[in-house]
Design goal:
single chain; 549 residues; alpha/beta; OB fold (Dihydrolipoamide Acetyltransferase, E2P); Rossmann fold; seven-stranded mixed beta sheet; binds S-adenosyl-L-homocysteine
Length: 549
């Protein structure tokens, strides 16, 4: 059956797509329908046709799915923000968990990922969780000020007097600003003409501190009657910073580079756990502080730090994870491409009196190979955390990680597909996926945050049989010293840090069996580094000490 545009069809929604939209089939075509839920039977109108897929708009529900709920927000369907408020929260979580499972199985080639996945970590109260909001500001056709959100896939602003996912105080903040702009006839920005002053309202709230920042993004250099606005805003408890951000470009970018403080400090502070962070209008900071704590606790758990490790935090942003881990590690190195973020990271380290965190500015795929080749401090990592943007890790970085041979890699990801792609690469190179947790950071949207633990396919995985043999006919010492024990010994006795790779190279040289394929160079001309003489001597001493040679 050929589908026809603008015609109505009946459809059964069988699945849910990447943004939480419903998916069904009509006559062999896959049809994506926003605002529907798995289990819905509905009339839809075909609005767009491609070769094998089509897009439909919900016209009328025939039988609603059992997973359907009434959205708490009255404008949820028009607003482009929450794409899944009409789906029960339980089902949202189930959908996110399954999305990760399917990606790990299909793309990651992980067998039975569900056996390694923890139950999804959702929010007890999945509303008013966002600490940062950016409201586009304009006028409706009658000239009334509108402050709200863009309608899905458009730039028309829906006036939003209440938002159920932003910090609760936002309703009051936007009301004050709406009144100020109206009373003092302040112009609002028009995207078409590039005229008008106020473009966006940015608010940030420290959930632990109660501190509030209000920042008006303006297409100009000053705001008339600014004192009146400050007077009204400072009546609100917790007001800490009132500022302007200057953006005079005709662009979709929300923020310009320059900020002017009108009143109070030029930043607010907040905590994740007991680490304090300074947040300025331009800083990147996780938007759901409650779940960020849950996520970082998971990272800490998976990193399993004992206090003596060298940890790398790749794609570190303002160093949030680096600082969270620093107290449990010997040394943390963070790498981040954006220089301002690194400045914030250094400032935050100072603020928390953390002295064992060092930060590099640059692309992880350039900085890390260079540090590794130099062989200096940090070239042997025990634990690596990566938290890349949606496109996942750069191939050069993954290659370097494989050479650095950290014991554990903790991968934080906001895109399960690229996560799974990178997991497959790491699994081909000596690592095994041990655990995975889905943390719901973006309730009511289709976005999924995942953290997984990969660790080296330990000799123990392969040696188990040998240990049993050992119990029968090897001298007790032969099989007993683990890589960790050898590392400890070398560090204590020789003051040297050695990697698993080096230990396995020396073991092999000494004729000690190393798990099959374990740390073997992939090819003769492989770029795997060779253990330096001094470290080889130290490792041999350890092997001797443990009676293995
Ligand atoms: N780990 C941080 C931030 C994660 S967001 C936190 O939890 O807050 C991903 C970060 O990667 C962004 O700060 C972005 O600027 C940075 N980034 C993007 N590409 C990069 C690259 N090639 N090398 C290093 N950092 C990069």
């Amino acid at each position: 059956m050929d589908l026809i545009k603008n015609q109505d069809y009946e459809i059964v929604i069988e699945d849910m797509g990447n943004d939480g939209e419903g998916i069904g089939h009509i006559g062999g075509m896959t049809v994506f329908v926003k605002d529907t839920v798995m289990g819905d039977v509905a009339f839809i109108k075909i609005i767009k046709l491609k070769k094998n897929i089509a897009y439909g708009r919900l016209v009328k529900l025939i039988t609603p799915s059992k997973y359907r709920v009434e959205p708490v927000c009255k404008i949820a369907r028009q607003c482009g923000g929450c794409t899944m408020q009409h789906v029960s929260y339980e089902k949202q979580l189930d959908y996110k968990w399954n999305k990760v499972k399917n990606c790990l199985a299909r793309i990651g080639k992980v067998e039975h990922p569900e056996e390694r996945m923890e139950p999804v970590l959702g929010m007890e109260h999945p509303y008013h969780y966002r600490n940062k909001s950016q409201f586009p500001t304009g006028r409706d056709k009658d000239g009334n000020v509108v402050i709200g959100f863009y309608a899905g896939r458009t730039h028309s602003i829906i006036d939003t007097k209440q938002c159920v996912i932003s910090a609760e105080i936002n309703d009051r903040l936007t009301a004050v600003i709406r009144k100020f702009l109206t009373d003092y006839h302040i112009s609002t920005y028009d995207e078409q003409s590039g005229e008008g002053l106020v473009r966006h309202i940015l608010t940030r709230v420290g959930f632990a501190t109660g501190e509030i920042m209000v920042c008006l993004v303006i297409n100009g250099t000053g705001l008339c009657h600014a004192q009146r606005l400050v007077d009204a805003l400072t009546e609100i408890e917790g007001m800490t910073s009132v500022c302007l951000n200057i953006n005079q470009e005709k662009t979709n970018r929300i923020l310009g580079d320059q900020c002017v403080t009108l009143w109070g400090r030029d930043f607010i502070t907040d905590y994740i756990g007991d680490i304090k962070y300074q947040i300025s209008p331009l800083s990147f900071f996780q938007v759901n502080p409650v779940q960020t704590k849950v996520l970082y606790d998971k990272v800490l758990e998976y990193a399993d730090l004992k206090g003596d490790e060298v940890v790398w935090d790749m794609y570190c942003g303002i160093g949030t994870i680096s600082l969270f881990l620093a107290r449990n590690a010997r040394q943390v190195f963070g790498v981040e491409a954006v220089p301002q973020a690194i400045e914030d990271a250094k400032k935050n380290a100072e603020l928390n009196h953390i002295t064992n965190a060092e930060f590099y500015t640059g692309k992880a795929e350039e900085v890390v190979p260079a540090v590794y080749r130099s062989g200096g401090a940090g070239s042997a990592a025990d634990v690596v955390v990566v938290d890349p943007p949606r496109k996942g890790c750069d191939a050069v970085l993954l290659d370097t990680l494989v050479q650095m041979q950290p014991q554990r890699i903790v991968y934080v990801s906001c895109d399960p597909a690229t996560l799974a792609r990178d997991v497959a690469i790491l699994q081909e190179n000596g690592y095994t996926l041990r655990k995975a947790a889905v943390v719901d950071q973006f309730c009511h949207s289709g976005h999924v945050e995942t953290v997984v633990l990969l660790s080296q396919r330990k000799p123990d995985d392969v040696i188990e049989v040998e240990i049993e043999l050992g119990e029968m006919d090897l001298t007790s010492a032969e099989s007993k010293a683990t890589y960790a024990e050898i590392k400890d010994y070398v560090l204590k006795e020789h003051g040297l840090k050695v990697s698993n790779l080096y230990i396995s190279q020396v073991k092999r040289k000494c004729g000690i069996e190393v798990g099959e394929n374990y740390n073997l160079p992939k090819s003769e001309d492989s770029r795997q580094p060779q253990c330096p003489e001094e470290k080889e001597k130290a490792i041999k001493d350890a092997l001797d000490h443990f009676g293995m040679i």
